[in-house]
Amino acid sequence: MNTLLVTGGAGFIGANFVLRAVARGQRIVNLDKLTYAGNLDTLASLKDTPLHHFVQGDIGDRALVARLLAEFQPQAVINFAAESHVDRSIDGPAEFVQTNVVGTLGLLEATRDHWRGLDETTAAGFRFLHISTDEVYGSLGDAGYFSETSPYAPNSPYSASKAASDHLVRAFHHTYGLPTLTTNCSNNYGPYQFPEKLIPLILARALAGEPLPVYGDGRNIRDWLYVTDHCSAIERVLEAGRVGETYTVGGNAEKQNIEVVNTVCALLDQRRPRADGLPRASQIQFVKDRPGHDRRYAIDAGRLRRELGWSPAHSFEQGLAATVDWYLDHQAWVAKVLDGSYRMERLGQ
User: Other CB atoms closer than 10 Å to residue 137's CB: what's the count?
Assistant: First the structure.
């Protein structure tokens, strides 16, 4: 049976990946620390399946990782585990360094030692796939795109910690021969995203009748990628990616933040209009910008398309409509997430 060790598999992207993998009949060993953003409710449908084995723990716990590798003998390790919110990294960068840098180092060391003990055929097929972000490349001007050859220029504690983890993965391949792969993706959105990120935050605050905060002038640009499209790219890279290589993953959907917020508002006006009849865009409030806020990200996913035949299946309009519908249909999930540890307040000022 094909077995994968997935770290961070109770988080947003990781859980979406796990749900898809189990539906395909893969066995998943899911290691997650269950910080504020990890949510086992997302994986409730897998409670009774023998294909999903959940373990609460830290990727930096070398002994635990070594035990899981020895016990389950996975064909690959897929590392989603990370502290991932820029605003939180501004308030507390040390936790991001501990998880994203020190934790990734521990995971790499345990995986390297396990891989070295495999027989030749099994070792040749083994993979370590590291999930990263386009934010490691810094801020683009009005033109151009990030690609696999873009220089690293991180501007936030979060992106700096992810850049460091990317470099460690590269170093473990070139120094020790560990068969690694890395993906750097654009902004994900879709079901099960923690409501500190832009789209679910705007949805939650709009439905609660609260102001919708938009940083600065609202014209910062991101390339938006529907989460299941990202998962399909990861699946394809794991299946056919060249060892030691990096692949940038984007949704071909550059949007200004204010465009995204206005579109969410319009979709809610259609589906859940305000009782007073006012448009939800009337709740928009421009606020002081985030420190070090990168102006534009955009991804050239040409290598994925040319070499592996991948392209996103969802337009931004399709994905955003599906996302709004999912959140409206799963308000109980949102309510349980907003349990008191996070109340949609502004972070990272």
Answer: 23
